[in-house]
Amino acid sequence: MSPLARRRTAALIAAALAASLAVAGATATAQSSATEISSCTAIDSSGDYVLANDVGENASGGACLVVRADDVTLDGDGHSVDGDGSATGIAVRSGSNAAVTDIRVSGWETGVEFTGARDATLRSATVTGNAGDGIAVADAEGTTVADTIVANNGDGIVLERTASATVSDGAVRNNDGVGIAVSDGGVAVDGTTVAGNGNGGVEGLYANLEVAGATVTDNGGPGVAVSSGSAEVRDSAVGGNGGPGVESSSSDTTVRESALSGNGGPGVAAQGQVVDARRNYWGASDGPASAGDPDAPFEDPETGASADGSGDAVTEGSTDGVANVRFDPYYTSDPRGGEADLASGTETETQTSTQTETSTQTETSTQTETSTQTEQETETRTTTAETSTGTERESETERETDAESDDAAAGPSAPTNDSATATATDDPTAEEQTDSATTAEENSSTREIGGVDETTDADGPGFGPLAALLALVSAVAALRRS
After folding, report:
1. More confident: 143 or 272
2. Strand 445-449 to strand 325-326: parallel, antiparallel, or no bridges (unpaired)?
3. CA–CA separation, 297 and 313 (whole Å)
4. What share of the chain is helix, strand, coil (3-state, %, to 5)?
5. If I label 413, which of 171, 184, 320, 397 is the partner at 20 to 30 A Cα–Cα?
6. Three-class secondary structure of residue 92 per DSSP
7. pLDDT: is 62 or 403 the higher one?
8. pTM
9. Do 89 and 65 touch, CB atoms closer than 8 A?
10. Number of helices and strands (H, E) in the chain?
11. 180: number of CA atoms within 13 Å, CB side?
């Protein structure tokens, strides 16, 4: 290696070491700037806080850690907040933009509480073994629970009077009661496993539920249930639950691209209102069954397809033999695993038929318009030809009148040119032109070509009367020249 190359290499190594030291220093500075917490306390000022050790033994005031300010970040740094079965582990009360991360909360009446908070976040946490609610949210807006395990509590996550909450990329499992319960609010459950809970998986009362990319299985009650609200379930597995897979008393309920199988009740149970559950897999390639009833199998309320398969069942509506669940068409395998065949049904056929009818109507309309335009053009051309012929005839009449006036003006004393008259009369050319004009008038005929009247003579296409007039004009002109 040349001296220059060695100097360049040494310079690069020195720069890399300097950058590493700068990053390490910045990290140390950031960590040192956070306020350390070593016991239960209340946080009343904005800023960054970090747990220096496990806390919980000296809890007072109803909660171990209380956040009462805006823009607070509490980093648990992997430590625990442990209780004795009473009070609350962490309480975020009022304020906005609070974030609690990397923490374990267990042994309390309520694990984590959000009350009156806006845009609060609990991330990368473990909330287990609390006697009441693992996480309780009330009178809040924009609460996010992400990448968090909520297990072995009384109820998993309970939300009351809460708008726009999100539970994502975590697990809510093995709680004694409901996995996720919502009343008078809304929640989006995204990419989360809700399994093994003693009662329902996700339940809503006067609530708006959105369940997407979730696994809702093996719960003691229904997988997803909504009463007096709305629900959308898509791209999810809902199976093995003790009650129905999806249970709804709301007409604003949609189930799409999901697998409904092995539930203790119907795959979709509608109470009074029609539920739209098309394009799902019902646990068998031949589609859904009908819930036990003398009127079974039930028909799809729109297409009339029969629910006579061996998969999870649909329920019957107010009309005997007609389901209150739309299920046609359905997938013959789980659509979440990649490509899945959609069972041939009337939906595709109806779309094709509609397209054909539309095309036919369009073609008919086009033909009608074209025909009308052609007829209008024909009438215009015919009128123009008649007008032209009439004009030429009027012009010829005027010329003949002028000629007669000239002859009268000459008077009886004008000498008669017998020789010229004889010559004109005996002129074979004039006689042939006159005969030609007469023959053209007698042999002229009209034929219709493509809806347009076209005048022809015996020798071929032309303007019959016009040709006769032209011949007559030529004959008169010849006589005058003579």
Report:
1. 143
2. unpaired
3. 10
4. 30, 35, 35
5. 397
6. strand
7. 62
8. 0.68
9. yes
10. 5, 34
11. 35
**CA separation, residue 58 to residues 67, 93, 118, 130, 372 (Å):** 17, 20, 28, 18, 94
Mean pLDDT of the chain: 78
pLDDT tier at 7, thresholds 50, 70, 90: low
The Cα–Cα gap between 353 and 344 comes to 15
- At residue 399, the pLDDT reads 42
What mean pLDDT do residues 184-204 have? Answer: 98
Burial readout 172-184 (b: 16 or more C-beta within 10 A, e: otherwise): bbbbebbbbbbbe
- Cβ–Cβ under 8 Å, residues 143 and 165: yes
What percentage of the chain has pLDDT greater than the value 90?
59
Taking phi first (over 0 means left), then psi (-120 to 50 degrees means alpha), and beta for anything else, what does residue 75 get? beta
What residue ranges define each of the domains in the chain, with the CATH number in brackets? 33-341 (2.160.20.10), 356-406+417-481 (no CATH)
Residues in the chain: 482
Pairing of strands 41-43, 72-75: unpaired
Angle at 42 between CA 39 and CA 48, to 5 degrees: 85
- Which residues lie below 8 Å from residue 259, measured CB to CB, with a gap of 6+? 236, 237, 238, 239, 280, 281, 283, 334, 335, 336
CA separation (Å) from 240 to 243, 254, 278?
9, 20, 20
Helix (H, G, I), strand (E, B) or coil at 290: strand
Give the Cα separation of 364 and 326 in Å (integer).
35
Pairing of strands 460-461, 452-457: antiparallel
C-alpha dihedral (142, 147, 153, 157), degrees to nearest 10:
20
